[in-house]
Design goal:
Helices cover about 15% and strands about 20% of the residues. By secondary structure, it is of the alpha+beta class. The strands form two sheets. Strands 1, 4, 5, 8, 9, 10, 12 and 13 form an eight-stranded mixed sheet that branches.
């Protein structure tokens, strides 16, 4: 049987960077700007110029077992395949058009909706949560996200009882997303959750980080954060939520279903087909940590997979 560890907020705490400190991070970074590649400076400036977001810190997610990733690293080391398959997509992503931003909610719902993101944000309260982010490639970050629980979107969507899963789609902007020319990929980028997963308190729809609105390279204006899963599940720049009655193909299950599964829950004992998942390296510091089952959030989510904890398909 796989052991389930304590809640992430019960781990030995390291005091996180305060909101005041990271809102003034431009001053802190001034002495280290020479270390940042010139090609990344536009993305740094773009995030510094974004308006601050006011959000109360949720006390259940106010500390971690490691220091927060430097903001400069979190906004410059990004996967966003629509802008390329490398990590330095931040400059190109600045062309992403995010205003206005209409979101479609359809499928097995009481009434299909098309809402402006501001309409949605007017119905929820924003909060800040410190989450760990674990990529399937074995790198990791610790990020102060701002957003709202996914369950609040479920309240807006009013799914039918027959709805069991949610498909989320990233926007397509052919004029600025050069990666879309890679026609062998199954665009648009799609990811999915079960209704039970979306209703779990950890599932979080993100609109900001480090006290400011999301920059384009991080998935502006709205993305998903599910910290117990590998990072590719956290779909960016979401334009559509479709409620369905069965598991649908996602971007990565269509590309390489033998390596990237629908569930993709973090587990150090279930390796990727081509590498071990036993440890992770923090971006920026290179510090290495042992990987924890469900990325350390097992106490909150293991009940979603009762009877399946020894089934490898839930962990890749």
């Amino acid at each position: 049987m796989i052991p389930i560890r304590k809640k992430i907020w019960e781990l030995p705490n390291i005091n996180p960077t305060s909101e005041k400190d990271y809102l003034s991070r431009r001053t802190v970074l001034a002495g280290t700007s020479a270390l940042i590649g010139a090609s990344l400076l536009p993305s740094k400036k773009a995030h510094a110029d974004l308006h601050p977001l006011k959000a109360q810190t949720n006390p259940n997610y106010a500390s971690l077992d490691r220091e927060l990733t430097a903001e400069s690293e979190a906004i410059s080391y990004n996967n966003f395949y629509e802008f390329g398959s490398h990590k330095s997509i931040a400059p190109a992503a600045q062309a992403l058009a995010t205003e206005p931003w209409k979101i479609t909610i359809d499928g097995l719902v009481s009434s299909p909706l098309e809402l402006d993101i501001d309409d949605i944000l007017g119905r929820v309260s924003l909060e800040e949560r410190l989450y760990r982010l674990r990529c399937v490639e074995t790198w990791a970050m610790a990020v102060p996200w701002i957003g709202f629980p996914f369950k609040k979107l479920l309240d807006i969507a009013q799914p039918l009882q027959s709805a069991k899963y949610i498909v989320m789609e990233t926007d397509i902007q052919k004029d600025v997303m050069s990666g879309l020319s890679q026609s062998w990929y199954p665009w648009p980028y799609k990811e999915g959750l079960s209704i039970q997963e979306a209703d779990n308190d950890l599932a979080f729809l993100v609109v900001g980080l480090y006290g400011k609105k999301l920059p384009p390279q991080n998935g502006s204006p709205i993305r998903l954060a599910v910290p117990w899963k590998y990072g590719f599940k956290s779909v960016k720049s979401i334009k559509k939520f479709t409620f369905v009655d069965s598991i649908q193909p996602t971007f990565w299950t269509a590309v390489a279903g033998n390596e990237y599964g629908f569930w993709a829950n973090v587990n150090p004992d279930v390796p990727h087909r081509r590498w071990s998942q036993s440890s992770e390296k923090m971006i920026g510091t290179g510090e290495r940590f042992d990987t924890q089952i469900f990325n350390g959030y097992g106490d909150a989510v293991a009940s979603l997979y009762q009877g399946q904890l020894n089934n490898p398909k839930y962990f890749f």
